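Write out the 3D structure for:
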Amino acid sequence: MTTEALAGFLPIILLFVIFYFMLVRPQQQQQKKRKEMLSSLQKGDRVVSIGGIYGMIKELTEDTVILRVADNVNIKMARAGIDRILED
């Protein structure tokens, strides 16, 4: 390969490197943080669902969460439906 051919591929290679550091890597870090948050859920945590429902975790299983949203009102939802844990 000549240096001219290598110089022709350099902008494409540079574009892929920029694409990786601007889009792929931050997305992977965000997914890792979300997975850690979902695995750290505990009974009694106050959370917000993806749909905007505020509640307190009453029960946990591997795939589901039962949220207490009001007196005698419980909602069963997917664990992945939790958006964030509220800090008291």
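The mean pLDDT is 92.
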